[in-house]
Design brief:
By secondary structure, the protein is mainly α. A two-stranded antiparallel sheet has the order 1-2. A two-stranded antiparallel ribbon has the order 3-4. A hairpin with a 6-residue loop joins strand 3 and strand 4. Helix 1 runs antiparallel to helix 3 and helix 1 runs parallel beside helix 4. The longest helix has 26 residues. The radius of gyration is 34 Å and the shape is elongated.
Length: 258
Amino acid sequence: MDGGAAFPGTPPVPRSPEDVFRDYRARQAGLIRALTTDVEKFYVMCDPEKENLCLYGLPNETWEVNLPAEEVPPELPEPALGINFARDGMNEKDWLSLVAVHSDSWLMSVAFYFGARFGFDKESRKRLFTMINNLPSIYEVVTGTAKKEPKEKTPKSNNKTNKSGSKPSRLAEPNSRVPKMPPPKDEEESEGEEGEPQEDHETALCGACGLGYDDFWICCDLCETWFHGKCVKITPAKAEHIKQYKCPSCTGSKRAKA
């Protein structure tokens, strides 16, 4: 290949955003191969004693190191010139990262050169950019940052979608005569008394059936054990009129002592 002379007509000139994206992806695959799988071969070819060299990604998913195109202006935008001169002047990892950044820039310029040449409108350019942006960049692949994207974390306060295993917080103080019931299922549900983290309540089970979280709970004012309202036959409406709730166990124990 004589610089960029092999680009015209190989492959057939792309005409749509999808065609341009396929060309982009193929060239990117070749560049990634040069900077990862074939890195030793690439390193040797970038001899600082040679003339200005460029790294080209080709439409058949291969790569080559060559002199820039002699024609002015060239058929396509040219990659970064003289990458070989920096090879021995910096750490190899940093040098490869630098070449990767310039390769990403070159790929974008080639893709949008085609977009301009074939008269892509605003929506077509946006579609092309979206497809490109869904791929990891060469820099991300070479440096490994593409594998370290943070995972989305569900806020602890979002209990509307994760009720199982969470214990409701008590609204009333121990000396209150109002039955203890869980608060509304909102953001405050993530904390217990005095800002106690929700995780401290994850093992709470109903004192009657032994199962986890339900829509309505009530707490015994004597033993402070939580019960599902349905397990002790207490409805929210009925609980509003109870001054002090005693669970069946505490009621039975009091009668036995009497």
